[in-house]
């Protein structure tokens, strides 16, 4: 089992701390979603002028960067915004080639009052240019089950229209179950052959919050984590199990020092249970 965490969960850690904590807790990789306040990490020295030093540090620590989590959205009706997203994809494509990273996470985005069919058409059109970049850098875009594209049938329709091996699925195992009441088995049955990467989190219902739920340490909520793990392993999933601890957006949740070590222990226990 390959474990990673996204840097969304440790917004104040420097590179030394990220690497040392990953090694100490038994992780295999780090998924970058921002670094020290900058979401567009390719603008930072660590991923530009000092990139060789960063590459060396990850290699010496035997750590991978399995995915770069971008802010790119497939749905936009703005040509200016689309061009911005295309530029961002190119920058991440370059980083993928530097770090031998296969994936870039992308969002579907909010469609507002536009009909679902029109949204499909807009995404299909935007994807043509995005996939050219993915093909150029020989990487794969991962559409996350998130926002207005959480339901598996919506994601499946995009894959069908794209007809490209360069777009696959990131199954955020929390969102479909929690926000649209989708069963994990339905998600897998619909998208399984295209699921290449997973994000993990747990929560419980809390109606007096903006989201209607409270994020928590894994196992302290009611997301069927064990069932989801079993579905993945029974069907031969070999990708990463990545903790998306949303500390940047939810400062009230536990500190990364606690959450990251707890997640590694929790997932190892799941692995041992499945082995029996």
Description:
This protein is of the alpha/beta class. The protein has one domain (2-275): TIM Barrel, CATH 3.20.20. It is built from nine helices and ten strands. It has helices at 15-25, 51-60, 79-99, 116-137, 152-162, 175-180, 184-191, 225-234, 256-275; strands at residues 2-6, 29-31, 67-73, 103-107, 140-144, 167-172, 195-200, 202-205, 213-216, 240-243. The strands form two sheets. It has an eight-stranded parallel beta sheet with strand order 2-1-10-7-6-5-4-3, covered by helices on one side. A two-stranded antiparallel sheet has the order 8-9. The longest helix is centred in the middle third of the chain and has 22 residues, at 116-137. Residues 20-269 form the Xylose isomerase-like TIM barrel domain. Keywords: Isomerase. InterPro entries: IolE/XylAMocC-like (IPR050312), Xyl_isomerase-like_sf (IPR036237), Xyl_isomerase-like_TIM-brl (IPR013022). This is Sugar phosphate isomerase/epimerase. GO terms for molecular function: isomerase activity.
């Amino acid at each position: 089992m390959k474990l990673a965490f996204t840097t969304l969960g440790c917004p104040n850690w420097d590179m030394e701390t990220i690497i040392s904590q990953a090694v100490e807790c038994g992780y295999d990789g780090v998924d970058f979603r921002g670094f020290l306040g900058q979401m567009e990490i390719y603008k930072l020295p660590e991923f530009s002028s000092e990139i060789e030093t960063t590459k060396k540090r990850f290699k010496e620590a035997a750590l991978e960067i399995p995915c770069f989590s971008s802010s790119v959205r497939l749905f936009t009706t703005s040509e200016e915004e689309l061009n911005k997203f295309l530029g961002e994809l190119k920058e991440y494509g370059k980083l993928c080639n530097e770090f031998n990273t296969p994936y870039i996470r992308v969002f579907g985005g909010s469609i507002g009052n536009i009909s679902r069919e029109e949204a499909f058409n807009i995404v299909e059109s935007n994807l043509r240019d995005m996939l050219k970049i993915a093909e150029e850098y020989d990487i794969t875009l991962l559409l996350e089950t998130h926002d207005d594209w959480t339901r598996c049938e919506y994601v499946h329709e995009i894959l069908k229209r794209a007809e490209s091996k360069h777009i696959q699925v990131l199954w955020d195992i929390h969102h479909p179950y929690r926000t649209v009441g989708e069963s994990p088995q339905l998600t897998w049955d619909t998208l399984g052959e295209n699921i290449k990467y997973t994000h993990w989190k747990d929560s419980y219902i809390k109606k007096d919050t903006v989201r209607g739920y409270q994020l928590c340490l894994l196992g302290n909520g009611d997301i069927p984590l064990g069932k989801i793990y079993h579905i993945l392993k029974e069907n031969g999933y070999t990708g990463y199990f990545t903790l998306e601890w949303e500390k940047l957006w939810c400062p009230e949740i536990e500190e990364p020092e606690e959450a990251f070590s707890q997640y590694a222990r929790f997932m190892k226990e799941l692995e041992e249970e499945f082995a029996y």
